[in-house]
User: Which sequence fits this backbone?
C-alpha cells in the first residue's frame, strides 16, 4: 500500500470514527431523555401515592372522631339512666355536670367530623384530578418511550454498519499505523489527522516549516505537524 492509499484509508477511518462518535453521543442523549421521562413518571406516581396515603389518613381520623362521638353519646345515655337512681342532690349535680360536659364534647366532635368530611371531599376531588393527569401522563410516556427507543434502535443499526466498515478499513492498514492513529485520536479529541493547506496545519492553525510543507508534495513518508503532532494530509485549494 503506497502512502497516498494509506492516507486515504486513515482519512476514511477518521470520518467513520467521527460519525460513530456523533451517533453514540446522540444515542446517549436519547437514553438520558428516556431516563428523564421515567423519572418524571416515578415522581408523579409517588405524588399520587402520597395523596392516597394522606386521604387514607383523613379517613382514619374521621373514623376515630366518629368513634369518640359514639362513645360520648353512650356515656351521656348511661349517665342519664344513672340519674334516676341517684339519692342525694350533690350526686345529682355532679352527674349533671358530667352530662353537660359530655354534651359539649359531643358538639365539638360533631363539628370536627363535619370539618373532616369537608377536607376529605376536597382532597378526594384533588386526588381524582391528579390521577386523571397521571393516567394521561402514562399514555404519553408510553408513546414517547416507544419513539425514543425506535430512534435508539435505528442509530444502533447505523453504528453496527459503521463498525463493520471500520473493521474492513483497519484490516487494510498496517497494524502499527492503526496503533499510531488510535493513540493520536485519543490524545487529540478524536482528530488524529489534520489538513495541510497553504503552508498551515488546519488542525491547530499553526504555520508549518517550509521544508516540511514542501515534503508533503513528495508523498515519501508520513509527516506530522510539529505543533499538534497530527498526521498531515495535503489538501490544495481548488481553483
Assistant:
Amino acid at each position: 500500500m503506497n502512502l497516498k492509499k494509506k492516507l486515504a484509508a486513515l482519512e476514511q477511518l477518521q470520518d467513520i470514527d467521527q460519525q460513530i462518535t456523533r451517533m453514540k453521543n446522540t444515542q446517549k442523549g436519547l437514553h438520558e431523555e428516556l431516563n428523564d421521562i421515567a423519572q418524571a413518571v416515578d415522581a408523579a406516581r409517588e405524588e399520587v401515592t402520597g395523596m392516597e396515603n394522606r386521604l387514607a389518613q383523613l379517613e382514619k381520623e374521621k373514623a376515630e372522631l366518629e368513634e369518640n362521638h359514639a362513645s360520648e353519646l353512650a356515656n351521656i345515655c348511661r349517665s342519664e339512666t344513672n340519674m334516676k337512681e341517684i339519692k342525694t342532690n350533690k350526686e345529682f349535680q355532679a352527674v349533671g355536670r358530667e352530662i353537660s360536659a359530655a354534651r359539649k364534647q359531643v358538639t365539638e366532635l360533631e363539628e370536627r367530623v363535619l370539618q373532616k368530611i369537608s377536607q376529605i371531599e376536597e382532597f378526594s376531588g384533588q386526588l381524582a384530578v391528579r390521577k386523571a393527569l397521571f393516567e394521561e401522563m402514562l399514555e404519553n410516556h408510553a408513546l414517547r418511550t416507544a419513539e425514543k427507543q425506535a430512534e435508539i434502535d435505528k442509530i444502533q443499526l447505523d453504528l453496527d454498519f459503521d463498525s463493520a466498515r471500520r473493521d474492513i478499513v483497519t484490516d487494510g492498514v498496517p497494524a502499527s499505523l492503526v496503533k499510531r492513529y488510535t493513540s493520536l485520536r485519543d490524545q487529540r479529541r478524536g482528530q488524529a489527522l489534520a489538513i495541510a493547506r497553504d503552508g498551515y496545519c488546519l488542525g491547530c492553525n499553526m504555520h508549518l516549516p517550509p521544508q516540511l510543507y514542501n515534503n508533503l508534495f513528495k508523498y515519501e513518508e508520513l509527516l506530522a505537524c510539529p505543533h499538534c503532532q497530527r498526521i498531515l494530509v495535503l489538501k490544495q485549494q481548488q481553483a
